[in-house]
DNA sequence: TAAACTCGACAACATGGTTGACGAAACAGT
DNA sequence: ACTGTTTCGTCAACCATGTTGTCGAGTTTA
């Protein structure tokens, strides 16, 4: 058969490469974080902490940002609070709301994550070339729906 | 400060792009599969079916291929069997083993997945250019550890 | 003031993982 | 040929992360 009817690489390879590289980055991030005093943070927690941000957020808002239910967000907040990364503070203006705020430890892990990601990015740039890496990012942007990132990484696989 | 000390894009953007594009592909795959008579297959199932393959495999072997415990593999096989995608058959030569085999329905979903992935690959090639896509795959290969793909997508985020 | 909405919490459940235990079958060494 | 070790599948208990439904309390709106 003519080779033009078959792609040079089977189509299923690309998603595997995308996932493997994503996973490689996240694994290296958490290996670094573990060495820097945050051994218990899991990938899922990182996304939740990002969703909370320096300004804090309510559980319902976190759920909206992550694309999960407010109940699920509340449970994740419970675990983060138990680990000392966030704290609930009552809202004086709205008796229903409880604002989730990052503790200094939570801020620390976010700051370290940003640094580590920059280092990993620089490492990849030197491996595959700054130009090619930038081109890859551009290419990926053009195939990803533009309506903002949805951060609901976990759970999306199940149910 | 000089802009050279700051990457053009913050480092955390790249992993988000990688995940978003992986997710986009998988979501589109399953949207297509749902239309083609497989509405109940979830991403996690797809990986397990791939691990089983046309030759079949035992639960322990599936666990090894996916990087999960044989017990977890057994539970996933239970669900796949309940949905009619696989069947357990006793091994005549080894009384301990039970070979997991794809049913015709299981083979069908694998075949359709391969086709859909090829279509998606072609679509991306026409969007971002065949050359650039091939270059991207090459670049990704060079930053992903070479020791084979680990397919344990679910669960890796948790625990 | 009354109705409607939003918030956080509780309960019950599904799914995809984990570890530990255990009997049955196969294998390896004396 | 027996015995000890390994492997296979399964059961049980548990954890993490989701889901839906419910509900009281507080806020907003008509």
Describe the structure.
- The structure is a homodimer of 159-residue chains.
- Chain A has 159 residues and is mainly alpha-helical.
- In chain A, 58% of the residues lie in helices and 8% in strands.
- The first copy, chain A, contains six helices and three strands.
- Chain A has a three-stranded antiparallel beta sheet with strand order 1-3-2.
- In chain A, strand 2 and strand 3 form a beta hairpin.
- In chain A, helix 1 crosses helix 5 and helix 2 crosses helix 3.
- Chain A is globular, with a radius of gyration of 19 Å.
- In chain A, 36% of the residues are buried.
- The mean pLDDT of chain A is 90.
- Chains A and B meet through helix 1, helix 5 and helix 6 of A and helix 1, helix 5 and helix 6 of B.
Give the rounded overall mean pLDDT of chain A.
90
Strand order of the largest sheet of chain A: 1-3-2
Low-confidence stretches of chain A: none
Oligomer: homodimer
How many strand units of chain A?
A: 3
Give the SSE order of chain A as H and E letters: HHEHHEEHH
Largest interface: A-B, 59 and 60 residues
List the helices and strands and how they pair.
The structure is a homodimer of 159-residue chains.
Chain A: H1 13-35, H2 43-52, E1 57-58, H3 59-66, H4 70-82, E2 86-90, E3 98-102, H5 104-128, H6 130-143
Antiparallel strand pairs in A: 1-3, 2-3
Chain B binds a DNA duplex (30 and 30 nucleotides) through helix 4.
Features:
homodimer; 159 residues; mainly alpha; 6 helices; 8% strand; globular; DNA-binding
Structure summary:
The structure is a homodimer of 159-residue chains. Chain A has six helices and three strands. Chain A has a three-stranded antiparallel beta sheet with strand order 1-3-2.
